[in-house]
Amino acid sequence: MRPFSVLLAVAVLGQAPAPVTKPTIAVAVIGNASRAMIETVAPVLREAFGARIVTAPDVALPLASWNEWRQQYSANTILDALASAKRPEWDRLIGIADVNVYLPDLNFVFGAADARRGVAVFSLARLRAGADEALLSRRAATEAVHELGHTYGLSHCDQPTCVMWFSNNLSESDRKGTRFCPAHEKQLAENRGE
Ligand SMILES: [Zn+2]
Ligand SMILES: [Zn+2]
User: How far is the CA of 9 from the centre of ligand 2 (A)?
Assistant: First the structure.
């Protein structure tokens, strides 16, 4: 074997194992949201989506998202910022915000998603009411799974315990928890080509 071939063989052996087929979900904090929350939601997202979870660089809260008249932040403008920050190697990017966010025609939202661009956001701001650390963590994980579910093409559910139930308030959010109903579990797998 010539020296060149030996080098080549070493290089090939040194490569990483066959590409992992697990999708990658990146999680970013937006503005001054708690970075510890990434560690809180990561295990739940890992299980719900069978994904590899990575921490994305912080995303600044876009100044343009502030709506003076509403005294709230536009979820759509935050989604635009996330879409700009998203890297091609990430299947999804979800941002954790800690401000009062809205969508047009709604008084407020817990979160929002853009399936076309594969980005989602949820906010801790309205999840703290009456919650200790454990309940806040569960609510955050619930919102994260719900919004990421939308990015995989899932719609709202008529099963009150399915994570895709549309929560009007925190008691509905607490009731539904982080799990998909069997129909949505199936649809999620189909939409992801499994
Ligand atoms: Zn929803
Ligand atoms: Zn469902």
Answer: 50
34 and 122 Cβ atoms separated by less than 8 Å: no
**Alpha-carbon gap, residue 93 to 187, rounded angstroms:** 20
Residue-wise pLDDT tens digits, 9-28: 445 555 555 555 789 999 99
Q: Give me the active site residues, please.
A: 147
φ, ψ for residue 81, nearest 5 deg: -65, -40
Give me the percent of the chain exceeding a pLDDT of 90. Answer: 86
Tell me the ligand closest to 187's alpha carbon.
2
Phi, psi of 154 (to 5 degrees): -85, 140
Residue 160 alpha carbon to ligand 2 centre in Å: 8
Asked if residue 150 has pLDDT above 80, the reply is yes
Answer CATH for 20-191 from 3.40.1190.10, 3.40.50.150, 3.30.420.10, 3.40.390.10: 3.40.390.10
Domain ranges of the chain: 20-191
Least confident of 10-19, 40-49, 102-111, 115-124: 10-19
Of all ligands present, the nearest one to the C-alpha of 158 is: 2
> What pTM did the predictor assign?
0.88
* CA 109–ligand 2 middle distance (angstroms): 19
